[in-house]
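As agreed, record minuted below.
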Amino acid sequence: MKATIDWTGNASFKATSGSGHSVQLDGPPDHGGQNLGPRPMEMLLMGLGGCSAFDVMSILKKSRQDVTTCHAELEAERADAVPAVFTRIHLHFVVTGKNLKENLVKRAVSLSAEKYCSASIMLEKAGVEISHTYEVHEAE
């Protein structure tokens, strides 16, 4: 896996993945940025959420669950001192579908957290406290 980061002026950078996708990173105005894109630590948090949501949906599809939406909300706390690393992250999944089995949603979230989500497991090994919750809703 590869990526490149190119400075685009002030506190802005263009991040490009090895698969050719780009995102603009930027800092806040008080640090010379123009708020043109997410901060690098926000990207890390979004990457964790995407990794875990990908796993949850993959597991639910394999379990033949009729999911109509999967929404993940992430909330993180960071250390007060430099480096301002993540200390706690909470992921909350809201899964909506037709006749979903709650035990299978619970299993999917657990398997992602404990076995499949590389980002989550890597951050936990670095000392970040990560928790997961979920709720299941019936689609209309």
Q: What stands out?
A: The two ends are 41 Å apart (CA to CA). The CA atoms of residues 87 and 128 lie 5 Å apart.
